């Protein structure tokens, strides 16, 4: 019988290619049919291994979740960018490989990201999700987030609503 370990840790530059793979797979799965194809492809291609290595080296907070040593997902986090919201922390991105979704890994990564923000002294947290991303909306409302604000993101002239979930 094999026992797989699940670890959550701060990303290192050596993780960059694996994070780029997760980003590619997760974004294709989450946004195909929502974000126009050309815009989605451009956004994915812009974030290859070198982009992620630079983000990690620049001290961006990137967490990874590993199963048996293989990176299954990542989260990026830091200070809230929406000045109109009082929450101090923000999870910018939280994504898992499609085959790793729905088994509790996202909840574990989300809890670790929240804890990391709290450890940095940031009170309250916000997460934005596209309104058409039903899986994300269900995940964040199921995690206790309150839907309190809306915004718009434009992709190749297509305006998409986004929703802000907050935790105190």
Describe this structure in words.
The protein is α+β, with helices and mostly antiparallel strands and 168 residues long. The protein has one domain: Gcn5-related N-acetyltransferase (GNAT) (Aminopeptidase, 3-Layer(aba) Sandwich), CATH 3.40.630. The protein contains five helices and seven strands.
Write the layout of secondary structure elements.
Layout: E1 6-10, H1 16-31, H2 37-46, H3 49-57, E2 61-67, E3 70-79, E4 89-96, H4 105-119, E5 125-130, H5 134-142, E6 146-155, E7 158-167
Helix pairs in contact: 1-2, 1-3
Please state the average pLDDT score: 95
Q: Strand fraction band?
A: 25-35%
Q: Quickly count the domains.
A: 1
The secondary-structure class comes to alpha+beta
Across the major sheet, the strand order is: 1-2-3-4-5-7-6
Count of β-strands = 7
Element order: H for helix, E for strand: EHHHEEEHEHEE
In helices, the fraction of residues equals 25-40%
Which CATH-level-2 architecture? 3-Layer(aba) Sandwich
Give the distance, in angstroms, between the N- and C-terminal Cα atoms.
Answer: 42 Å
Mind describing the biggest β-sheet? 7 strands, mixed
CATH superfamily: Gcn5-related N-acetyltransferase (GNAT)
Low-confidence stretches: none
Total DSSP helices: 5
CATH topology value: Aminopeptidase
| Rg from alpha-carbon coordinates | 16 Å
CATH class: Alpha Beta
Q: Note the overall shape.
A: globular
GO molecular function: acyltransferase activity, transferring groups other than amino-acyl groups
Keywords: Acyltransferase, Ribonucleoprotein, Ribosomal protein, Transferase
Domain N-acetyltransferase: 6-168
Organism: Aminobacter carboxidus
């Amino acid at each position: 019988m094999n026992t797989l370990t699940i670890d959550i840790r701060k990303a290192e530059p050596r993780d960059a290619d694996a994070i780029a793979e997760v980003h590619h797979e997760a974004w294709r799965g989450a946004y195909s049919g929502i974000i126009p194809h050309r815009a989605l492809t451009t956004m994915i291609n812009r974030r290859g291994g070198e982009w992620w290595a630079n983000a990690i080296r620049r001290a961006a907070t990137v967490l990874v979740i590993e199963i048996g040593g293989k990176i299954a997902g990542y989260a990026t986090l830091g200070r809230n960018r929406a000045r109109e919201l009082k929450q101090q922390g923000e999870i910018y991105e939280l994504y898992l490989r499609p085959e790793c979704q729905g088994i509790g890994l996202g909840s574990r990564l989300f809890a670790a990201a929240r804890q990391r923000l709290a450890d940095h002294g940031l009170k309250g947290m916000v997460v934005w999700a596209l309104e058409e991303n039903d899986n994300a909306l269900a995940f964040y409302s199921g995690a206790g987030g309150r839907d309190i604000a809306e915004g718009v993101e434009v992709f190749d002239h297509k305006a998409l609503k986004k929703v802000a979930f907050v935790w105190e």
